[in-house]
Amino acid sequence: MKRDLFRRYVWLVDVIRNAKSITYEEISELWKESPLNTDHSPLALRTFHNHREAIHQLFGIRILCNRSDHEYYIQQEGSHGSETKLRVWMLQTLALQSLASQDGDIDDRIMLDITPEEKHGLAAVFEAMRTNNVIAIRYPEINCDSVRRTTVVLEPYCLRFWHHDWYLLGKNTDNDKLEVYPLGSVLQVQILDRKFSYPAGFSPREFFRNYFGVEVDDNREPLNIRVRIKGDNRQVLRLNPLHVSQREVLTEPDSSIFDYLLVPSPKFISYILSLGPKAEIIAPASLRQEMLQTLHKMLSLYE
Questions:
Q1: In 10 A of CB 26, how many CB atoms?
Q2: What is the DSSP letter of 174?
Q3: Cα 268 from Cα 262, distance rounded (Å)
Q4: Considering the entire predicted model, what is its pTM?
């Protein structure tokens, strides 16, 4: 595929995805101002439809037209559009890697961390989920004194991309418990010649609903947590909610109060602490006490 054509496909997908719904005329006007369009010419209608068809054929992303208002949108396939989001993410990743490798004059100015799919068998996990095959993963088990390599056999239930890494949720065949493993730490993934039955009523989204990210702790119940956030941080939370349960229940001139229903994991507590004096746990009292004990331990390191 020609380099410029690939860039056009990525540009078109990004424009429609960001707009949610947009007319051909609006797309054409935006194309005039695109840095990819050196002569600032409009996007021909036939070219637009050819791009739509190519994007569907090559990447499985469908750009459809709402006949009532003649606006184009990206069809959201899979539960909550997760299948389409994955395809768009893969397209963007391919585009970035392609541009970084071909633009030699700026390649030292584009910083790409090693991604899980480059060294940890993400494709193997995809395949195992598709065929309902059991997998064996080998990973480092770290404690205070040493690191040892160990293997666990899992029924792969789902993958979640969170905080720049892929996480695998699977049932451990030794203890029948659902466990989460970061693929960024996995050394090897092997698909075994054994099938499993994926539970018909299982919902990954519901499973993680009460947890902060991928920190699963079935020994603790979710709490109704109230947090006061000051300054610009509240606007950050409005744009990027910390959790699906987030609700802004009180807005004052210099602060806002947000409510959450979740299990207060170590990463949740660390996030609140990272905001310093701009964040305060108001309730429950038990979590306030836990935060106070953590702060005392931190302070003791400097006394």
A1: 15
A2: T
A3: 9
A4: 0.67
